[in-house]
Amino acid sequence: MSYAVTLIPGDGIGPEVAEATRRVIDATGVPIEWHEHQAGAAEAHRHGSPLPEATLESLRETKIGLKGPIGTPIGTGFRSVNVELRKRLDLYANFRPARSIKGLKTRHDDVDLIVIRENTEGLYSGLEHMVVPGVVESQRVITESGSKRIIQAAFKVARNFKRKKVTVVHKANILKLSDGLFLEVAREVARQYPDIEYQEAIVDATAMKLVMDPSQFDVLVMENLFGDIISDLTSGLIGGLGVAPSANIGDNYAIFEAVHGSAPDIAGKGIANPTALVLSGALMLQQLGNNQAADRIRNAVNTVIAEGKALTPDLGGKANTRKYVDALIKAL
Ligand code: NAI
Asked: Lower Cβ count inside 10 Å, N or C end of the chain?
């Protein structure tokens, strides 16, 4: 049986890292039927829409997408395709594992965290208005149902991946009503998971503690903006955005993507580091039930980076994307 996956190459280095990831996944032998569709700034330039209906239709049909980064020009009225996809497919959970890669020198060894970010509410609800010229209000929306499903997602992940602790990150000391609600819901959900330790932590202190000693955390769950920032911090703990995978998951659909952007400064040069999307591909294989293939990809990444002979320039090497991918496939 083969799996149908919608492949969206995206902008900038997107097509380069998407092609690299496709090669690595195909080399595992897991049969994937790739349905390639476009989205992004280049697509908007070509055909007028950054998110063509055919792309959405394909995602609705296959239910699984692998997506390269998409450029969002600032100040052009161009809506973010990423935000649009999360809303249209109700991909409410952003899953950002941060696991150390052997051989990649970072501040701490053996980092192993999972950050789960709420993807549809908070300050990203897009509700902004000008009160009077010079005064703008942005609404931060926290709902009981939105909080419940993201906290349940965190506990389910903790149970499925045999993790010990869930930390709910908040700012309820200041945002008493909104984060107060988030915490109230969290405490209720936590009662249904007595086997998993429950902890609450204030967001600013959490940032400091993560930098000092990440081993005190395990699974962390939080609202949208806090999650956006904290998950980039945890990516920094494992070597930066070039190696950080992610998944956007809802009840019916899932899109796997790298955390980094379209890197216009190196696009087309053939030197992009595809690791983040390759590891996102491993998460996708895991979601499809192919844990073994996912582990083989992670081991190959660890091996090639530890050997240090075929690294892309961002990792301090001189190899191009193709050479790095050839080494990954050999290590598989
Ligand atoms: P960026 O992540 O594209 O680039 C930041 C720096 O990291 C650049 O120097 C770039 O060369 C480097 N870099 C990023 N990924 C790399 C990789 N795989 N290999 C080697 N070097 C890499 O962030 P920036 O410049 O802020 O954003 C560029 C565009 O990407 C913007 O239009 C932004 O909106 C979009 N973006 C899209 C995302 C997505 O689709 N998920 C996420 C973040 C930004």
From this structure: N
Atom 5 (ligand 1): residue with closest C-alpha? 263
Range of the domain at 80: 1-96+244-332
Residue 75, sorted as left (phi over 0), alpha (psi -120 to 50) or beta, turns out to be: left
Nearest to 295 by CA among 277, 273, 279: 279
In short, whether 317's Cβ falls inside 6 Å of ligand 1 is no
Residues whose CB is less than 8 angstroms from the CB of residue 55 and which lie 6 or more positions away in sequence, other chains included: 6, 8, 37, 38, 39
Question: How do residues 45-65 score in pLDDT, each as one tens digit?
Answer: 888 889 999 999 999 999 999
Let me know if residue 65 belongs to a domain: yes
Threshold 0.85, pTM exceeds: yes
Q: Is 322 inside any structural domain? A: yes
pLDDT at position 45, please? 86
| Dihedral Cα 225, 231, 234, 236, nearest 10 deg | -90
Q: Are residue 209 and residue 265 in the same domain, yes or no?
A: no
Q: For the chain, which ranges sit under pLDDT 70? A: 73-78
- Which neighbouring-strand residues pair with 35? 6
CATH of the domain at 322: 3.40.718.10
Question: CA–CA distance from 54 to each of 38, 50, 80, 206, 294 (Å)?
Answer: 9, 11, 18, 42, 29
Residues 14 and 78 placed together within one structural domain of the fold: yes
Cα dihedral sign, 90-171-241-308 = negative
50 in ligand 1 pocket by Cβ < 6 Å? no
Per-residue pLDDT of 83-113, as tens digits, reads 889 989 999 999 999 999 988 989 999 999 9
9 lines ligand 1 (CB under 6 A): no
Phi, psi of 245 (to 5 degrees): -85, 170
Taking the centre of ligand 1 as the mean of its atom positions, its distance from the CA of residue 235, in whole angstroms, is 14
For the range 292-295, what are the long-range contacts, defined as Cβ-Cβ under 8 Å and sequence gap of 24 or more? 293/25, 293/28, 293/29, 293/30
Determine the Cα–Cα distance for residues 40 and 150; give it in Å rounded to an integer.
Answer: 27
101: in domain: no
3-state secondary structure of 224: helix
